[in-house]
Amino acid sequence: MANKLVIKVTSGADAPERCSQAFTVAAVAVASGVDVSVWLTGESAWFALPGRAAEFELPHAAPLQDLLESVLTAGRVTLCTQCAVRRDIGEGDVLEGVRIAGAQVFVQEVMADGTQALVY
Asked: What InterPro entries does UniProt report for this protein, alphabetically (predicted)?
């Protein structure tokens, strides 16, 4: 098993099943003791804002708000710098525990020994 799992979420309400799958995998990995880092990019960037995950609905899926909270509690959540700027999201706008970082940090995480990466 990988020591670390980096999940890049590129979708949001525009592709709800793909989005839900990413957060479900992240939450299950966290619950299994895996070191998880979730990157919010593209339309998933909106979930870095308070209340946005609670608005997401997908029948027969775990509430996105609950999945995100579990990752924030035991893993890391990062909002892509460029995605944040494009949406006029600043450091003071995001949920507590969400950091804003760019491609250099993403590459460092993905290239670390024992890391597996998934893109949704």
From this structure: DsrEFH-like, Sulphur_relay_DsrE/F-like
